[in-house]
Amino acid sequence: MKKIKGLVVGVGGQGIILFTRVLGEACLKADIPVIVSEVHGMAQRGGVVESSICLFGKSPYTSEGEADFIVAFEPAEALRFVKRAKKETKFVISKDPILPFAVKEGLATYPDLNSFFEEMTSYFSQVFLVPGEELAKEAGSVKALNMVMLGAATALEIFPLNREALVEAMLELLPEKLHQVNLKAFDLGFNYIKSIL
Asked: Which pTM value belongs to this model?
């Protein structure tokens, strides 16, 4: 099988590590070789969190121009990691910004998202903007953003996985009281992408 490499990025508290764990467990259940690596940048304080994922390969690190996919839980983080992309990279981006402390205090400015999204969609062939926060709230909890994004990424068939393997991994990793909300979040993300394909 062809090697698949990419990144899942965002800020601390968005559930990126759980996203990666569910994906990794689902791959193992499907007998797909997978390697993941996580980088936490002051995650508890809203710092950058980055997970590198590689299926059918030996190293998870994704160099410049090497990513097959980038899943960004926060739009400015997609901008931060855009150099790792190539023309064919598939982007799944939650379009809800999380303003850093410096921006809130007036010490820095947040990127102009409209021009950023226009540039992204004009250069890269597959950029999907997801109303992640809205869908997570519809599922029952804004904390379910990670499962919205997992559903959305899976809808693009980036990963050779079926829904059953992903759901089984999710249910094993989450406490039972969170199953219903997260299943709904996954399906909302999945169906959102399918509706615009």
From this structure: 0.94
